[in-house]
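Marked as duplicate of an earlier ticket. Keeping the data here for the record.
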Amino acid sequence: MRVLSSVACFALLSLGVCAGAQAFTGEEGQLIESINAYRSQAQRCGDQGSLELPPLSSDTRLALSPEGTRDLQQAMTRAAYPMVNVQAISLSGPRDAKSAMNAIAESFCQVVLDPQFVDIGVSQEGRDWRIVLARPLLSGRLGDWQAEGQKLLQEINAARKVARQCGGQPFAAASALGWNTTLAGVAANHTRAMANHNYFDHIDRDGRTPGDRAELAGYQYRLIGENIAAGRDTPRKVVDGWLASPGHCATLMNPDFSELGAAYAVDPKSDAGIYWTGLFGAPQ
């Protein structure tokens, strides 16, 4: 038996965000690229290791002047950014994006590797920099977990119809996955646990892996894989995020998988608010 897993953390951009989601250029754009490259690989930060994280989305509303207000909440209100959480990094001294990235990796790795953040804005004035990371409000309305899990299956199958590159790895179009109720139940239980206990990981609080959970539920498999996401409130946005992340994309496009179970869960007390699990299987 083999187990594949990929992890992603995203948040939904509510209505109107697209107007602010624009590309940054010059040194500011290069710093965003460097931060996203840093997040795309497991990193050591202090005494902890990070998971592979998806890219942050650039949003010009988060480009706050280094000399601007220190009241971030007030600044987000003026910028019409409906944030849940925001944090800023201020740097003074780096000449360019490379030097700024070195300073961030050395002193602010916990901030840029925090999976709850999904948007970023960078501003530079001479040797002064301000990097703002934020997570916006959720705004979607969903049906029950079974219905939305089936919609996630439809989005995944639509994606599998198209040949694509997942990072540097090419994938041919793959056959459609079928719905498996056992995998769906396992996905639902894990998603609810993440939401209720406010954690985001493939390993649950009892130390079980996706393969462990599937096997305990009676699913006999040759191969198992799991993608998780947090913060996005529609199946389409979840799949779009997975396709933008090489590891998740590779799991989604893997032709060896033939079945899927999926679910979401919401808990307003949790950091991300909403969590998703897609559990891919190839039965024996």
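See parent ticket for discussion. DSSP finds nine helices and 13 strands in the chain.
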